[in-house]
Amino acid sequence: MSQVAGAKADIPLLITEDSRYWYRQGKRFDDQECYAEAVACYDRALINSPNAYWIWYNKGCALRELGEYETAVASFKEASALRPNDYWAYYNQACILIEDLDQFEDAIATLNQALAIRPNDYWAYFRRGDAKRHLKRYEDAISDYDQALSIRPNDYWAWLRRGDACRHLKRYENAINSYEQAQAIHPQDFWSYYKLADTFRYTEDFAAALKNYQKAIEIKPNDEYAWYNCACCAARIGDISLAMEYLESTLLINPNFQESLKNDPDLVVIRDRGLLGDLLREINCLN
């Protein structure tokens, strides 16, 4: 009996070059999240079956789990070459290219191939929209998010990312609508409230921004940025007492915000009234 280096002792590996055997062993290691051992088994299987789609495909999945992203993409490309009409090898390549390698142009080309196979696939449109958004091709990204939403109209992430793209184009009303759609789908998710609040700040609707930052804090009470932005909005609408409460909470979570307080134009009214000194002294004594 022999074992692949690092294999768990409860999975013996018989000395054999049978590809099916090594493939099955690789799958067993995958199931136990022993990805290095799984890759070693798939490599043994490929010795006698170099044209086996599923071996290359599962090797790509295991390599991604190991963080070997370039090699994972190469494995999925081998799988795609063997089955050019199989959607999943293209899709998994694209996910790695977007999420792990920041190779967005290559991801778009790969997703184009996936969509040629599945022209009504939500995920391919959504991922391609993400790749275009990263490339600052916001118009094209919105088009892909709209395609995704035509297939899954109640998808939180497509609405959220559509809002991001609209906001980058300064289409604030469209962004607000998209974030509100996301909120309606997942009313307890932090990001739709936070991003909606940011958008209201861009339109100088500080009261609406404050309301959404407050909701974000309810969901994620230790987020110092939400507390700080509440302070800025409260100062903008003239509620100095509330702004000071939010600033104190911000500094208790993260004292490093002290420098921002000294220069942020949203807080000029507080600085002009000489209110920062006592607060900073109090926080520094606590720390």
From TrEMBL:
Repeat (TPR) residue spans along the chain: 19-52, 53-86, 122-155, 156-189, 190-223
InterPro entries with a match to the protein in the record: TPR-like_helical_dom_sf, TPR_rpt
GO BP, sorted A to Z: anaphase-promoting complex-dependent catabolic process; cell division; protein ubiquitination
Domain of life: Bacteria
The entry's keywords: TPR repeat
Entry's Gene Ontology cellular component terms: cytoplasm
Pfam families assigned: TPR_1 (PF00515), TPR_12 (PF13424), TPR_16 (PF13432), TPR_8 (PF13181)
Transmembrane spans: none
PANTHER family: CELL DIVISION CYCLE 16,23,27, CELL DIVISION CYCLE PROTEIN 27 HOMOLOG
NCBIfam families: TPR_END_plus
Name of protein: Tetratricopeptide TPR_1 repeat-containing protein
Organism from which the protein derives: Fischerella thermalis JSC-11
